[in-house]
Amino acid sequence: MRVLITGLCGFIGHHVAEHLLEATDWELVGLDRIDATSTLHRLRHLECWPECGKRVTFVWHDLRAPINTTVDRQLGEVDAVLHLAASTHVDRSITEPLMFVHDNVLGTAHLLEWWRERVRIVKRTTFMMEDERAADPFFLYYGTDEVFGPAEVGQNFKEWDRYRSTNPYSASKAGGEELTCAYSNTYNLSACATHCMNIIGERQHPEKFIPMTIRKILNGELVTIHADATGKTASSRFYTYVGNIGPALKWIIDDAATQSRFEKWNLVGEREIDNLELCQHIARIVGKPLKYELVSFAMSRPGHDFRYSLDGAKLKEAGFAYPYTFEQGIERTVKWFLDHRDWLEG
Length: 346
Fold this sequence. Notes:
Elements: E1 2-6, H1 11-23, E2 27-32, H2 41-44, H3 49-52, E3 56-60, H4 69-75, E4 80-83, H5 90-95, H6 97-128, E5 138-144, H7 168-187, E6 190-196, E7 199-200, H8 209-218, E8 222-227, E9 236-237, E10 240-241, H9 245-255, E11 263-267, E12 273-274, H10 275-286, E13 291-296, H11 297-300, H12 313-317, H13 326-339
Parallel strand pairs: 1-2, 1-4, 2-3, 4-5, 5-6, 6-11, 7-10, 8-13
Antiparallel strand pairs: 9-12
């Protein structure tokens, strides 16, 4: 098995690669452009890297440009694509929306065009070899819960519910996801999409909420926590530990052989927690007091939603169980950053 991971050096990408290297004998091809949020230093922190790194081929390419013949040769033959590369910071999408369209929509289109040609060649070659039949290569699009927009209290969106993006980031991710669905339906490609909620874990970029909160608690700074319109009730999320993502995607890839049509899967944290409780939990692990201010989400910035929520029953009923609880994940995350404080400063 040879798998292409886009965004290999990103937060999600390198954790998924870590799991696949430890749990399988697969060969990995990592495609990345190395920008402000991705770094090869993430890979050298992996305990398995000295031994398993030899099973990884790195290819530099910016998906805002089509995959040319030179990059195609470097990528080589692959059995599956995990498209994890994306621009993800909501605030930046509000100030630079076109960058997110280029990265998340156009970049996905370029990758799908390359993949469509790859599958065509595989199927043509397989047809010519009457005594053999290759498995149909598989494409996984890594999406976000934010495509559904805000969820009312008690509302949990299922995989095929309607979309209602409220910022350029979520709209661009919805665009990439719908392109993947369209390519799968139009060209008969084996593909799926996931919707993942807020991911936490080691080596996350310091602009994200968890490392930013750890840094502010350590420095005795004020932590801003989004709240409802009254400014009294903190917003909430289903935080998911990144160590659960690799096993979930591996399970989906293994299940792909049984799929006859485009599928969607929600990857959901085990329980909902409001952001004030989360920050208090972090402060207890850090061992310092939390200084905070609740600020109405409507006043903090446009495009911010008070609550997101997904229904994770489909994956659970299909037989998958996450290996880590929320408590295990947040403790592993905070303690890692405390032991590697240089990662809190960017």
